[in-house]
Design a protein that fits this description.
single chain; 692 residues; alpha/beta; Rossmann fold; 31 helices; globular
Length: 692
Amino acid sequence: MQTESDGLCDRLAHALRQFKAQDLTAAAALCQQILEETADHAAALYLLGVVRLQQGAHREAVSALEKSLAVNEAQPACHANLGEAYRGLGDAAKARFHYERAVQLKPDYSEIHNNFGLLLQSLGDNDAAAASFEKALQYNPRMVQPYTNLGSVHRSQGRIAEAEACYRRALQLDPVSAEANFNLGTLLSDLGRRQEAEASYRQALQVRPNHAKALRGLGRVLAQQGRRSDAVLCCQQAVRLSPNYAQAWDTMGSALREQGRLDEAAEAFRRALALDPASPAIHSNVLQCEQYCPGVTPAKLARLHADWDARHAEPLRSGWSAHPNDRDPDRPLRIGIVSPDLGNNPVGILTIRGLESLDPQSMRLYFYSGRRGDDDRTRRFRRLGEWREVRLQSDDGLARQIRDDKIDVLFDLSGHVGGNRLPVFARKPAPVQITWAGYVGTTGLKAMDYLVADPHQVPDGDDAHYRERILRLTDCYVSYDPPAEAPDVGPSPAARAGTVTFGGAHNPSKINPDVVGAWAEILRRVPDSRMLLRYRGLDDPPVQRRYRELFTTHGIDPARVELSGWCPPPQLLEWYGSVDIALDPFPYSGGVTTCDALWMGVPVVTLVGSTFAGRHAYTYLSNVGLTELACKDVADYVKAAVTLAKDSERLTELRSQLRGRMLTEVCDGTRFAQGLQAAIRGAWRDWCASHS
């Protein structure tokens, strides 16, 4: 005869089978039936708690599991799941208590050591988390999850080789682990190993096609490779799966902006910021996108950047403390440089010569680098002073490092571009803070004391649009470092072919419909001329189709416009040998692209804008004596380009002269450094005087 106890056991076994079959509703109902008859049935309470935990009902899980422990406290699995439930509720103290009790009762409980490690990691105790993951592996060396988690801890600590080894060990044990493949892909992406990262993300998606984070990661590496249409599709799929995934909207915005689809990009960035309003990085992307928009004004940019400061920097102001730096105005200074771009990129190209020419007896340099990889310019920066790798360092940690280094004057070389460390500057770790070269205008930060400019970039009367005080250098606010591999300047293509070739190596972000309209008008007025455009992503078929349609709308045969993608710098410089006249975009003008063109003997026609971003080319043209090519409006811009195209003698003359003018006026690092050094010293003396 079956007893009442036997019946309860049968129903509990049935409930367990339903649980294993993932029929959680049925499992919960069976547990409730048992508890209606025996309210203190420890096993039924435990199983009900586990079911509620799986359903995401953390409070109900806690209630059931606590009741089970009241019947029998010595249940390691119950303590473990109760730890999970409290972790889900955000009660770290109670979660920790129950994890610790679980491992006391069962020291070889690998899964609990792993979950306890996740809690410790969330609390920022990475060393303890790593120890817990290692303990899990000690008891079960073939368990995949602790390797993945330990890899993430190593990555957060900057131990990249160890992190990669952990992820690859996890994949040896389980080659199709979606999480291990995703984490490895993210690590490889951070290292700039984009093709490997792509393969890892695709492997994760093969296992879990609905892995929204892997889709976003894949979109990110595809965009970095210039495959921005595919990147947009990945991000669109990610937000369909997870509509509130702010980072996916953010990555989509970046890819759309790089395609020149500014309205769509701005909307994606706004969606991202609405979902994650506390993210300074997303907010910076919103600001950066605004710089490209036709009609943007300095006043609007000033207001939007001040909003960033109010949201992300103002709360940090209460933590500012006095700087104990020696207030001697004439002593040698410690100069800090913070940037993710100390290498072969625009920032490196425009700053290395000036920094190399500073007096090392007067100014000792400290570099805080967030750069991935190494190149010839990175090595030149390294030779100039103390070098700190800080890409994975927290904002608080980096601010403390700068204070510990006793930095007197701290330079920001990124502004609001990706990888910036403005939250560090918002903590005011140095007495004097200056932004220079890495961004196109004000940072908006009250903590940023100065911005380096020149009379062309920020003319007298425009200071009100900048939160920072303007340090105006006499000639040019940067010094161009010409590429060592640049070929000799060749003859004008028009002289060889008899027809004029216009060109530009511009990011599609800058090539808006107004720019295309102006270029089309120039092509119409110069019969038989053609246009060469080259940049990463311009070989993307949807992007090519869009621009060809725009030119067609203006009556220009798209066969007259050649669109090409990325090529190595030496090949790009050779490419300028096929261009007679470079046409600058607007409202965001060319920076290094303008310098490259002038270095290769190619004159540049620009429309002078009202914003910092709209005046780069004007600065360089002013310094080489070509202000007649710096135009006040679109009509003047078109006229200047057409007039120059018809003056073959002038084109030939400029082709032979421009490199020499650049060498003496824009590339003189020694002269530039004298001006920069005087500006730094003046800023330091002002601080000393105001804090004496």
